[in-house]
Amino acid sequence: MSVEMMQRVVDQTTDIVDNVTSDQLGNATPCAEWSVKDVLNHIVGGSTMFAISAEQGSVPDDVIGRLMGGDCLGDDYKAAWATSSARAMAAFDGADMSKMVQLPFGEMPLGVALNIAIFDVATHALDLAQATDQQFSDTELLEGALAIASQMITPELRQPGVFGPEQPCAEDAPAAQRLLAFTGRAV
Questions:
Q1: Contact between 20 and 128 (Cβ < 8 Å)
Q2: If you classify domain 3-159 with CATH, what class do you get?
Q3: pLDDT score of 1
Q4: Structure confidence by residue, pLDDT tens digits, 36-94
Q5: Are 12 and 123 in contact (CB under 8 A)?
Q6: 154: alpha, beta or left, given left = phi > 0 and alpha = psi -120 to 50?
Q7: d(CA 133, CA 95)
Q8: What DSSP line would sit under 56-105, residue for residue?
Q9: Domain boundaries along the sequence of the chain
Q10: 43: which DSSP letter?
């Protein structure tokens, strides 16, 4: 995948986030234990984590704890997403994709981290869209996220709190349904 593909993910996600209303923040999402607000918090924290790893090579443990366990949204979830996603895009843009970076789940080339970011944000944007009666319109992007997921999600990752077992879904179902089912969400 590429920085251009990540920009498409950010653009699609921004369209969805901008249309989330405050009364929808408590809505359940296909990501079983997370509400809309929880998913927003995760993608804001994750975007910041990816940005810092691209900028500095790793993220200090105390910062990881805050990004993955604290409130990353503040009083304005739309502005928090705009700020974190812009920082991530700036960090990836023009970066050496072979540069090694350290993330909480291992050391890898920045290009692999970019693919993980594409998959993660696209999947969670789809969660947000489903939970707030919106559409994720970029089918090609969802197909790309599914291709990344099929390479990344190993049996060891299919455990509570990470990814559930793949759910039944027709092979000819829309990309959104296939991605949700592959990542363990009921469709």
A1: yes
A2: mainly alpha
A3: 61
A4: 999 999 999 999 999 999 999 999 999 998 998 899 999 999 999 999 999 999 999 99
A5: no
A6: beta
A7: 36
A8: HSS--HHHHHHHHHS---TT-HHHHHHHHHHHHHHHHTT--TTSEEEETT
A9: 3-159
A10: H
